[in-house]
Structures are given as structure tokens and as C-alpha cells.
Amino acid sequence: EGEEEEPGMLDAGVRLAAHEDALAGGILTSPPKRARTDSSLPAPAASSSLAAAPQPELPAGLRLLGCLLDLLPEAPHHWRHFSHLFETALAMAQLGPEERGWMLRRRFASHLVDFYLADESPCVGLPAHLDEGRAAPRRARMGDKCTLPQLEHMVALLSLLARAAHRHEPVARTPLSLEGRLLHMAADEYQLLGHGALLRRLLKDGLHVAAICDLCEHLCYESRDATETALHVILSGIDTMDNEQLGPYLTTFCHVVDLADSLAAWRIDWALQRLLHVISNNMRYKQATISCMRALLSLCVLSSRPRRWMLHQRALWVKEWLLSGLSSQVRCTAEHFIKAILAAES
Hints:
Radius of gyration: 34 Å
Number of strands: 0
Strand content: under 5%
Distance between the termini: 143 Å
Structural class: mainly alpha
């Protein structure tokens, strides 16, 4: 006959078996920690049953703008056909301040500049530049030696967005600003629109010269720094480009120099002295010299301040143009220039 188990040993065996069953079934958990009563601790997160209400859906127009922005990285591969993309974006921006405000909040202008300048882009912080320190792949080339991509509507959109926002200058509004309340544009995005690399490329491509002029005038109004940046790019182009490419540079030069603000006298003196120097250095290029003289004549006939500056500073140019001109066409143009500004002054 076996020995009977003691009651205490039997109870312990039952408890041990129950404990092992609980572990196997996953129902044994550590006891909850004692709650702290420190009032400085953050409140516990809300339960999933108290999740925040869903955000209201964007209007259809703004959703469409988001779609256009998402298409931008692929656009260079379709440069022969993408003019309608930018025409649609421009039309959306012209609808009203809600659409323009959404574009500014999404840094639409920065994305456009980055798209346009591609590997020459000064943009940082955009998705194409956030690859954990690795160099971004080269972008697709747009256009060829015979055909430029159709980007006139893109330039008009950049100008429109710049003029819809307040400037990061002591004078926030200019005569070219859109009517109504000005919107907010990030400071770095505003600086990007006046970047030398962008202005240089726009003028070289000659895209939508009227929009380029509006953009430059808006940026240069009551701003010495923006004026010097823009005029440096313009004068460098006049100095180096062939005669056939001078049109956008000379047109923009005249618009910037003719700005009516408190810096007008300084701007005229700064710009015209340097233009006369460029003309003097390139006198051997007959057609380019004549183009510069004619552009300057159109400015002086229409505006009294540059005309009076030229008459006052006649010692800087009359002798060289009339006597030292290397061709009869240059000297004839100089003669016509003098007669025309004297007639305009009388």
C-alpha cells in the first residue's frame, strides 16, 4: 500500500499545476504599476475610441492643384507637350486668393524654380535634395538646340505669385502688387525669385519678357540689393550676348531703370554709368552697339530723368560715339540719338 500524500503537498501541487496552465495560456500578466499622481506629468493619450474627427476634404480646385504639383517631377520627360500643365496652373492661380494662398503654403514657386533650373537649382529642402546626403541624380534635359520648352505660362505664374505676396522689404507693397490683402510668402522663397541664377536663365531663354519685367520691377522697387543683383545680371548679358539675344536684356534694363521710387536717382546713375562702360568696351561690335543706343534712346525719349542724366553726363559719351565710332552706322545712330533727346527735352 502506497503512502498517502499529505494534504499540504496536494494543495501545493494543485496550485503549481494551475500556475503552469496560466503561463501556457498567456493569461498571467504582471500586476499593473501603481499610478503616479504627479500633476506635472502629461495627460495620458486619448483612447482610440476618442480619435480626432477627420479633417474636412479640400475643395476640388485645390485637389487639382495638388495633382499638378505631383506631376511636376515627371514634366521634364514630356517637355514638348507640358505647356498645358503650366497654363492650367496659371489659370487656377488667377481664380482668386484662395488658390494663390494654397500655392504659397505649398511653396509652389520654389518647386517651379527647382524644376526650371534643374541641376543648376539653388533650392534646398525640396524632395529632390533630401536623399540623406547623397547627390541627386541628374535631371532630364528639356529642349534641344533648335527648340526651347514652352514655359511662358510658368514665368507668368512666378510673377503672379510674387506680386500676390507681401515682400520681405521695408516696403511690402509695390505698384505692381495685386489688389487686396497680400498673402504670406516664406522669406527664402521670396529671395529665390530674385536669385541671379534664375534671372540669368530667364533672360537667356527670353521667356515671356513682359512677365520678367514685371517680376524684376516688383523685386527692385525700393530695394537697393535687389536692384544691384538684377542689373548686374542684365548688364553681364548685354556685355556677353550676341546682338540677336540682346532684346530681353535691353527691355528689362529699361523697365528697371525707369522705376519711380525713392531710389530712382541712385538707380539711374548706377545703371547708366555701367551701360556706357559696356557700350564703350563693345564698340567694335557694330550691330550690338546700335541696339544698345536705340534702347537707351527709347528710354530717354519717354522718361525725363535718364534723359537729363545723359545730357548732364555728355562728356562720358558724345565724343566717343560721334568721333570714335568704328563705323558710319554707329556715328549716324549717335547723331540721331543726340537730336532726338534734345528735341524731347525742348
